[in-house]
Amino acid sequence: MIIGVPKEIKDQEFRVALTPAGTRALLKAGHRVVVEAGAGTGSGLDDAQYTQAGAEIVSEKALVFDRADLIVKVKEPLPAEYALLKKGQALFTYLHLAADRRLTETLLEREIFAIAYETVESADGSRPILRPMSEVAGRLAVQIGAHYLERVHGGRGVLLGGVPGVPNGKVVIIGAGVVGTEATHIAVGFGARVVVANLHRDRLEMLEALYRGRVTTMVANADWIEQQVIDADLVIGAVLVPGGRAPKVVSRDAVGRMKKGAVIVDVSVDQGGCIETIRPTSHSDPVYVVDGVLHYAVPNMPGIVPETSTFALTNASFPFILRLAELGPEHAVRSDPALAKGLNLAFGRITHRAVAEAFGMTYAPGVGA
Ligand SMILES: NC(=O)c1ccc[n+]([C@@H]2O[C@H](COP(=O)([O-])OP(=O)(O)OC[C@H]3O[C@@H](n4cnc5c(N)ncnc54)[C@H](O)[C@@H]3O)[C@@H](O)[C@H]2O)c1
């Protein structure tokens, strides 16, 4: 099988979907790898390393798409790449389709066999390829929030850890999955006052056991969330309904009542965001202000720490890439229940329930799997 690795084109995206070590392993298993020139440069991996590993380097992105049976990427295809996708081609990447109707329709038209990293799901319900990037984004969320709380960056001018004699800042984290838990670790480390809300109790029990007295936990309900948010210096949105659009958990009215210069980092923006006033931004222009509150909503946060993120991602994705290559995408999806959960689109049909529901389109269970 020929595996194609294009260079990412999303704004300030420096990750790459396959390392030279992964390339070598695919070659050893009898496959071919075509890499777009410069694809790994942002992650400190130069073309020579890929060539030494046995990859063919091509200078044109179109050649990667044209030659490959399976395209492996980091982020979803952008409009400039739509026309390059071949009918029936297999695509393995983060897709977040529920937040992007145009992309969904394009991939359906082209009958792309689309497996989304974020919905690959193990038997215990964990999402092995989303997890490492959620770890990165959760940890980054507090660091980025602290940066924008600085007065020179438009924030209130609050030091999250405070100092003796001056109260510390307050961080409210909504969602206590992977992102929320990692954000909690870092916020506690910063010395902030931390409140975490989650739909279910179990995740909160774990945080309570770790940080008794240091973290306030609450089962999410609209009134409690609003009370906490209006008093916060930093709000982190970290909810997820797998495959679906994020529920709005903070209303426009609540944002209007927040402190001026407070900061919202909505990590869940890749699934549409959980704050009513959120819209996606980019690393080049990451924040905007509504009612005096800074909104940060970059859908590819881990892209700015590629030397960490590329290796964290490929450690998780590579075993699945190898399986897709070894068995062929259709057979791999049929024989591996985790990959079957990852299949979002096949043969022009939507094979993931939450994606179909997000657009009121027909769900075709079992197609392709
Ligand atoms: N912006 C980025 O760069 C970036 C990077 C990685 C992950 N993400 C996104 O971050 C989001 C969270 O990912 P995760 O891995 O932590 O997911 P997760 O499934 O581990 O956790 C989500 C949590 O949200 C909770 N939840 C769901 N609905 C809720 C509600 N109404 N109120 C309160 N809690 C609710 C769930 O109970 C769960 O604990 C996802 O959208 C993911 O794609 C974004």
What does this structure look like?
The chain has 369 residues and is an alpha/beta fold. The protein folds into two domains: 2-126 and 306-359, 3-Layer(aba) Sandwich (Rossmann fold); 131-304, NAD(P)-binding Rossmann-like Domain (Rossmann fold). 36% of the residues lie in helices and 17% in strands. It contains 14 helices and 15 strands. It has helices at residues 20-28, 47-52, 61-67, 79-82, 101-109, 130-149, 178-190, 201-211, 222-229, 252-256, 306-327, 329-335, 337-342, 353-359; strands spanning 2-5, 32-36, 56-58, 70-72, 90-93, 113-116, 170-174, 193-198, 215-219, 234-237, 263-266, 287-290, 293-296, 343-346, 349-350. An eight-stranded mixed β-sheet has the order 3-2-1-4-5-6-14-15, with helices on both faces. A seven-stranded mixed β-sheet has the order 9-8-7-10-11-13-12, sandwiched between helices. The protein is globular, with a radius of gyration of 21 Å. The two termini are 20 Å apart. The relative contact order is 0.15. The mean pLDDT is 97. Bound molecules: nicotinamide-adenine-dinucleotide (NAD). Nicotinamide-adenine-dinucleotide is lined by residues 118, 130, 133-134, 137, 174-180, 197-200, 203, 220, 238-241, 246-247, 249, 267-271, 299-302.
At a glance:
With 369 residues, the chain is α/β, with parallel strands linked by helices. It has helices at 20-28, 47-52, 61-67, 79-82, 101-109, 130-149, 178-190, 201-211, 222-229, 252-256, 306-327, 329-335, 337-342, 353-359, and strands at 2-5, 32-36, 56-58, 70-72, 90-93, 113-116, 170-174, 193-198, 215-219, 234-237, 263-266, 287-290, 293-296, 343-346, 349-350.
